[in-house]
């Protein structure tokens, strides 16, 4: 399970509580601006044993940026995590999933892995029925599920996580530790 865009107060606490209750580790693709605003929430993610990935410093669509600006967005995020939290970032996800092929070369050069998703839950539309439809129809044993740590999805995030866990159990799927699954 992966979560994009946080950490966001009021949402991340629900997410961490649900994951802890079910002993699941997740990969959080955080935004640097949010990490700077809420360092205590970032520490909580790390203290609970989750993985943090790079979702850029400002969540700008990379295709609209110059090569130099892309490098700055990605490296500034990594610098922030290294300096403020002693954490080395190994995974990257482009904002909105939009990137150019030269972004992959840059990510590889920075010793990171680009991690996209295979199951988009549409939780950001704040429609639990849509989440249920996506998960029921498209969940498979190797799914990389994307949810959002955001204001838009916070009202349905608890139910969404619960439903995903139940659906996975019904299909005899389990959740692996992110860094192991992505080797």
From TrEMBL:
Against InterPro entries, the record matches this protein to:
Glyco_hydro/deAcase_b/a-brl (IPR011330), NODB_dom (IPR002509), Polysacc_deacetylase_ArnD (IPR050248)
Does the record's keyword annotation contain Cell cycle? no
Q: Does the keyword 4Fe-4S apply?
A: no
Question: Transmembrane residues, as ranges?
Answer: none
Q: Where is the NodB homology domain?
A: 1-176
Q: Origin organism of this chain?
A: Ignavibacterium album (strain DSM 19864 / JCM 16511 / NBRC 101810 / Mat9-16)
* Keyword field: Carbohydrate metabolism, Glycosidase, Hydrolase, Metal-binding, Polysaccharide degradation, Xylan degradation
Q: Which GO terms describe its molecular function?
A: hydrolase activity, acting on carbon-nitrogen (but not peptide) bonds; hydrolase activity, acting on glycosyl bonds; metal ion binding
Name of this protein:
Putative xylanase/chitin deacetylase
Listed PANTHER family: CHITIN DEACETYLASE 1-RELATED, GLYCOSYL TRANSFERASE-RELATED
């Amino acid at each position: 399970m992966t979560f994009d865009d946080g950490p966001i107060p009021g949402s991340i606490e629900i997410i961490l509580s649900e994951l802890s209750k079910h002993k699941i580790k997740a990969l959080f693709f955080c935004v640097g601006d949010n990490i700077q605003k809420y360092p205590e929430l970032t520490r909580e993610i790390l203290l609970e044993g989750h993985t943090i990935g790079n979702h850029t410093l400002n969540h700008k669509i990379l295709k609209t940026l110059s090569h130099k600006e892309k490098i700055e967005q990605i490296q500034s995020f990594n610098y922030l995590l290294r300096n403020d939290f002693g954490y080395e970032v190994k995974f990257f996800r482009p904002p909105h999933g939009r990137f150019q092929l030269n972004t992959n070369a840059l990510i590889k050069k920075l010793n990171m892995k680009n991690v996209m998703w295979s199951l988009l839950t549409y939780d950001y539309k704040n429609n639990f029925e849509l989440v249920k439809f996506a998960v029921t129809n498209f969940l498979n044993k190797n799914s990389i599920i994307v949810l959002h740590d955001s204001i838009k999805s916070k009202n349905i995030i608890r139910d969404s996580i619960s439903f995903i866990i139940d659906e996975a159990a019904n299909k005899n799927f389990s959740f692996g530790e992110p860094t192991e699954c992505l080797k």
